[in-house]
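Hey,

Quick one before I head out. I ran the complex with adenosine-5'-triphosphate overnight. Inputs first:
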Amino acid sequence: MTFNAAALLLLILGLALIGWLAGRARSAMLAGRAGRKLHSRPQYHGWYVALWLFAPAAIFLAVWTSASPALITNQVLTTPAAESLPAFGFERGAILSDARSVAQGQQAAVRLPAAAPLVKPYAEATAHYAWIGIAAMLALALAGGAYAFTRIRPEFRARTRVERIVMLLLLLASLVAILTTFGIVLSLLFESLRFFSLVPVSELLFGTYWNPQSGAPVADTFGGIPLFWGTVLIGAIIAMLVAIPIGMMSAVYLTQYAAPRVRRWVKPCLEILAGVPTVVYGYFAALTVAPALRNFAVMLGVPNASTESALAAGIVMGVMIIPFVSSMADDSINAVPQAMRDGSLALGATPNETIRQVLIPAALPGVMGGILLAVSRAIGETMIVVMAAGLSANLTANPFASVTTVTAQIVKLLTGDQEFDSAKTLAAFALGLVLFLVTLLLNIVALRIVKKYREAYE
Amino acid sequence: MNRDTAPTDWNAPAMQSRIARRYAAERRFKALGLGAVLLSGLFLAFLLFVMVGNGARGFTYTHVAVPIDFKATPLTVDASRLDDPDADQVIANAGLSDIVAFAAGEALGEGGSDVISENAWKEVRTAIKADPDLLTGKTVFELPASSRIDIAAKEGAKGELGARVAALKANGRLSTGIHWPFFRNADATDPAVAGIWGALKGSVLTIVIAFLIAFPTGVLAALYLEEYAPKNRWTDLIEVSINNLAAVPSIIFGLLALAVFINWFGLCQASALVGGLTLALMTMPVIVIAARNAIKAVPPSIRDAALGVGASPVQVVFHHVLPLALPGILTGTIIGMARALGETAPLLLIGMRAFIGDVPNGICSPSTVLPMQIFLWSDEVDRGFVEKTSAAIIVLLILLLSMNALAIYLRNKFEKRW
Amino acid sequence: MTQDDLTIADPKMKAEGVDVFYGDKQAIKDVSIDVGTDLVTAFIGPSGCGKSTFLRSLNRMNDTVASARVTGRITLDGEDIYAPSMDVVQLRARVGMVFQKPNPFPKSIYDNVAYGPRIHGLAAAKADLDSIVERALVRAGLWDEVKDRLGESGTALSGGQQQRLCIARAIAVDPEVILMDEPCSALDPIATAKIEELIHELRGKYAIVIVTHNMQQAARVSQRTAFFHLGTLVEYGKTTDIFTNPKQDRTKDYITGRYG
Ligand SMILES: Nc1ncnc2c1ncn2[C@@H]1O[C@H](COP(=O)(O)OP(=O)(O)OP(=O)(O)O)[C@@H](O)[C@H]1O
Ligand SMILES: [Mg+2]
């Protein structure tokens, strides 16, 4: 007996349908008997019953689905069979999950011998909680449905009620965004504060040596400057050196010179470039671009040339950002009134003089906003740097050397096999907090500028 | 004419050469623009070329013809147990791998068992389960070659290995064909049997969950903000949150998921459920923004008309505004979903980086997703994985491109000007 | 069309049999007209009759509209402006244009006026440029109002001031012809009066063509008037004749406000 959420969801949906039909029928019948006109059309009564039936049960189902695995495991751990388990670590998790799979019928036999004694407790616990869950859910559904059903009267304002519930739903949905933001801020802040109780803030922000040892908060190994520099070098310097000129010039060419037919074909191509997943860019950077650049650097005699170079990651990231810059510039240039362009051309300026001296200066605020957004995107980009930029925290301006970034280090710190509470893991959250704050600032400033600019040419 | 200056002499040589210079600058500038566009195009073409060039071979594999005579070397299993759920275990325990290795040695001479993949017997096992009669006779199996032989056969090789492959080819033992295990299996350490089915299924589960959560929430939130929200500080806060969330680095969502879903709620690690939830939070703002734009584009006259015949505000929205805005909303949603499908970074942090050798069989079982599989394979030392990585990339790109094409089609088909 | 007493001996610009098409749609049909050197010519006619289209073909601004096509012959000092040898940049410097809505660049007042001379290289030194800017602003009647704030943005001026700035900007490149497309339609009566005064001042220094919907304005500022209707030139003559004694019924109907 397992707790199958999908099947149960179908069950309460079915019940809700029955409730809908019953509510509708009853309201029509009552109206007919009383010979009075209904305040709301029968289907609203139906909806009223269905919602009361469905919503509490569905909420319970969601809570129960997420809570019950932990409850089940807890119960299993209290059984004598669990005493022989290793205290923690990967093996413990593997044994538990093996036993769970067998107990819940997803797997025919145990793979790890140590899991065998746990199968029975697991099956028992699973059944136990499944019964509790199903019973509670059904009780809730029936209680809700019955409550709503008894309230149906001809004069009952079912439509207003239903609409109020719908409005509440809409409001809740829009609160998810705020909840997410708060969730991000709180979780980052909470873990970061724990980190800062081990390592001072000033060290993370201004320290120049980064080499977190295994878990222990060893002093002077959490200096973030090399990471911040690497992030800036790759995301804000190299990538932008590639993306801004090419993106801007593409936008200028497409808006000012290209025939409409060319434009119609090239824009989707740029969109494809924007739609390529970052892991593909990362693979491309590591497989093709980085070795080529290294050979080039060796040919030039650059010291410290590495196959994991800042340049490879930066260039590929720049290419990834080109469509973004280009579409922002495109929008900004298009927002400049045609009259501005005509005014310049009518004075005998060439298109290039018009673009450089009138259109781009006029579009500059919008373009700047776009570039800030692009920078924010580049410094938050993860896969390309993880795959192509390397993990050694060097404080160097040599673009052929390996540097690392904030995002790459977050990934490195969190994908090892260590305790969640170690200084290393917590450091990832502190880095995340820094990254979040910086991008937040960039985004807010950029969105402000872009909005102001749009309004200026309304 | 009573000008107070002499008119400009446009034909003076200085002026003429100046004009020539200006036109030259114009041509240079235009060429620069064209160059920029071509450069982007070239980069795209190069990327696709490299991926397709490497990846096309990943869909095929070298097979070795090996006859196995089960009369001479019988596999003693109870035929009735071949339908059991643990038939795999039963056959493995009966020593099939040794029989296959022996047959390979017989057929291919010394070291013959190194020519075929060490997992080749699993293919035999699959065949036996499908047709138990094979156990009573002699059959020639097309077994996957070992990764070394496969690469040598495809790319050519020198020395001993090259001679070996040449000899096998001369005997007609080698053939190249579509590599079905690639589409059928989950991850494995041996490129001969590693496949993308596990990752593909994980991706589908993850995306479906993300969609089921993000789409309704996003659309409802957009409706609220566009149609009902009063203008106040709260609404502003929601707006700022949404606009900002749409631009927050994806890895931050991974940190959020790790802290909240895994450490706090204790949801199943590395599962499609947590992955889907994470991606849902990430795509929801994108959907809200797209949906708001689509809703904004519905002209107010339609609302006024509906209100005018006595519809309640909720009816106006659900009967009139939403249906008209739906194509626009769908377009935005598909683009957001495509982005989620290609996303890797946040999933790294919720444990999806682990090696998962099984096809996931539920939303709570450990699974991986296609981009993650690409990332994992790109790190493998075995050279056989290079082409597998590119092949997986091709599959991913095809999925993404078709989603984007669908979005563009929808956009063009339903683009309305009121 | 041209009659004996108004034949212009040495027309600055001359249009002969001009047709303008937007795609397949013909906006101007077989128009021939002379623009005199020392005269102000007014184009009048109902909305959509092609006044702007024709005006824009006089300095090839129609080139910027992808679908537009001009046939026939237009000459400036006897040179065909649509000939391949004609340089558009030079042409537009010689035939300036002022638009319906003031369109100053988002630059300082000084830079707005200096823009043309700079791109054409009309000033050798900063002092020359200063004097060109000053002279253009003086002529446009704006100097006294802005001489202390040349560094401020041109977009910060009032509508009327902006339009005079645009006129100054056109004058600064020292054109031979100035085309004005409803230069006062976005302005209030006081600003309009200032512009009209300015046109009086400029008359004789430049050949001026002005499109207007305002009959009184045409009568006040111009010496020649051309009446367009549905893409054709219906009547062209001395302004006094057109307004007091139109030869065509359509002209009379329009001027007396019976349609338009
Ligand atoms: N860019 C264009 N593309 C297509 N058709 C155009 C374009 N510009 C103008 N037209 C058409 O050409 C005709 C003449 O337009 P034009 O702007 O010259 O009229 P107008 O006399 O200046 O009118 P108004 O007094 O309103 O300014 C109109 O029918 C108009 O629709
Ligand atoms: Mg006009």
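The CA atoms of residues 264 and 322 of chain B lie 37 Å apart.

Talk tomorrow,
K.
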